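Lecture 7 notes: from sequence to structure.
We start with the chain below.
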Amino acid sequence: MTADIIDGKAFADGIRTRIAGEVARLKDEHGLTPGLAVVLVGEDPASEVYVASKARQTVEVGMESFEHRVPADISEADLFALIDKLNSDPDVHGILCQFPVPDHLDERRIVARIDPAKDVDGLSVTNAGRLATGQPSLVSCTPLGCLMLLRDTLGSMSGLDAVVIGRSNLFGKPMAQLLLRENCTVTMAHSRTKDLATHCRRADILVAAVGRAEMVRGDWVKPGATVIDVGITRVPHPEKPGKTKLIGDVNFAEAVEIAGAITPVPGGVGPMTIACLLANTLTACARIHGLAEPEGLTA
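Predicted structure tokens for the same chain:
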């Protein structure tokens, strides 16, 4: 058996098309344009590329993009003053500060400063608490994207066994909460889990997010399981000297022969992250203005 390949790029394209339609409707019916503000501290090259991609995709779906580039030596007080200004700006519905930031700044304090209603990265304690207690929340973009892919692949997940490898606040914990809300039986595994392979072999849904290249082997996968690979590791390209390639936490060549469906790396989960950032901005706009949330674009 060869697994179905879950095409995250194509799915993300569809999500952006739906968002563009919803944005146009908001403009026509309510005179509203969702706005996303991104704060970039310093000149980290990788962050600059990512921020530029976010800005481009924001504009492409008809939203307003507000980009704020500040020097690497900005004081916490000045950064917080900017965030406070964005919190109170009625044209801004989503705010994120691109991480990492310079060492003199505390990422947790930055997240806490952002209005939870505009926390489109879903990182605040308030949004995490709302998710954990079953209340409406803004959910971290990558787990939200994984949930969308799983819903599209499986439909109902009620009663399925799910294993999440990784317990980070950014991904593992919210992913587990989302799967619980889908009525899965969830095991959260991590680096200290005893006999990890045995846990994985009983999973109908296996989500790997530990950042260890090809740690999950094919014989860890239950036949017919759905495998979501969140890991990204850059390694030397075996056929192109001086070049690199991206691989995931799952040994794809082995797992694809066992699983029922699997995400590739690249082209699986990655494209969903910015698409879900736009979805969260749209959701935040609707909630702030007391309007119906877009169907199928939230948790």
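Points to note: The mean pLDDT is 96. The first strand starts at residue 4 and ends at 5.
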